[in-house]
């Protein structure tokens, strides 16, 4: 175990990345536990206010992210300074992305349906950093032999091709597939080959005069959403808490 740790984590300089990811995930978990306790009115925790102004935890998160980011740039990856900066950066990033939806919508949507986007951003970020930590290089160029490393043309072609596939998947409305496809090439290929979602740029551009393709895309999106959306929502509720009900959707509410 010690040999594996030194060879795969310490020597490649991945310890700061591991520390940052650990701090990021733990910060998100602790923050969600505290906010859910505050929401339920349990425990000693309360919202932080100054002069009647509610201070969202994205504010100290931004400060910590800036401090940790510049500290990491100025530090040696193999030194104690780099490790400390990575932890500070991970804590700050966890606080910031926990309120990603607030930044996106420029309003407090933490416990609303739109607030689920914060959970999605955190899960997606943790997954991508985990892939990088496991040894994957962006755009899927990983595990290259010495001969492949000398062939720069092949490497550039692989990077460019996979980047194009990821862009195609993104234009088809498959955001998660496109992002993960930037790391794992087969994912981008699948996303690029499958039908686009009916509300995507690709569908509007290429399915306008193809009613059969448009109908198939609509049916496939409906079946996919009906099957996976409830499961995705259940996981998001378990991680981040159930959103407050929308008054407009309640019986008697204004639609």
From TrEMBL:
Keywords: Membrane, Transmembrane, Transmembrane helix. It comes from Streptomyces graminearus. This is Integral membrane protein. Residues 236-255 are annotated as: Disordered. The chain crosses the membrane at residues 15-34, 55-74, 80-106, 118-141, 177-196.
